[in-house]
Amino acid sequence: MKQNTSTEEAIKRWDGFADTYAKSHHEQGDLHKEVFLNPTLATLMGNVTNKRVLDAGCGEGYLSRIIARSNATVTAVDYSSRMLEIAKERTPEDILIDYRHGNCEDLNILEDKSFDLVVSNMVIQDLANYEKAFQEMYRLLVDGGVFIFSILHPCFITPESGWERTENGEKLHWNVDKYFYEGVYEQSGLGDKEKMLLFHRTLTSYINTLIKTGFVLESIVEPKPSKEMLEKYPSFEEDFRCADFIVFKLKK
Ligand SMILES: C[S@@+](CC[C@H](N)C(=O)[O-])C[C@H]1O[C@@H](n2cnc3c(N)ncnc32)[C@H](O)[C@@H]1O
């Protein structure tokens, strides 16, 4: 079936999914963010005090609030009005965040070179035109500015991947297929009213596009659970078998 990937349709899907999505998020995000992404992002971001930070695709805003609490000046953009409404409701009065309605693929509402740091947590695989989004992040950063983004690991989470199980449901190994497919696919198990769409690209496409945009790659992290997180959530032991996420740190 042909998928509608227009921006209008994508916004409608996110608006329809926003309340369900936000229910799974508390002040540390969801469980995967707490275990894998937040510790990695914190290490890669370092000290954000007095930095001008853009949270591109902020969703219900938990990461914007964490960063703003560290004394950064935070602008947070999302194209889902419902997500922004929830983000504003969840932001206490003493935390100043400039929430803006905008599309990460065209952020002409924001000036060139107006941020020291752009963070985009689990957004780039959700948007159709990642080349344009990378160009926008580059444009918005000051010279020497940093762009950090996390995505589902494209080598392991593909349009056809998942556990091979025994008849009793025991996990044998993780299967990966259709790695070289580039384009849209439906994410299983997400979305209630709407089917949510994701975009798959190879690791080569991501890295070559970032280089072509002008970014210099500083580091890549494939997050694993820490000892403390494993003590808290022992079921994440299986995440030592392959990586669900990859996080990039780039410099302009
Ligand atoms: C998976 S959620 C992640 C939200 C948030 N960064 C977090 O970590 O909780 C993806 C978010 O990106 C937003 N989004 C997707 N594509 C976008 C685009 N092109 N421009 C702006 N927001 C976008 C969606 O509306 C949604 O809120």
UniProtKB/TrEMBL annotation:
Gene Ontology MF: a single term: S-adenosylmethionine-dependent methyltransferase activity
InterPro entries: Methyltransf_11, SAM-dependent_MTases_sf
Gene3D superfamilies referenced in this protein's UniProt entry, alphabetically: Vaccinia Virus protein VP39
Taxonomic source organism: Litchfieldia salsa
Protein name: Methyltransferase domain-containing protein
Residue stretches making up the Methyltransferase type domain: 54-149
SUPFAM superfamilies listed in its UniProt record: S-adenosyl-L-methionine-dependent methyltransferases (SSF53335)
UniProt KW Methyltransferase keyword: yes
Alphabetical GO biological process terms: methylation
UniProt xrefs under Pfam families: Methyltransf_11
Keywords of this entry: Methyltransferase, Transferase
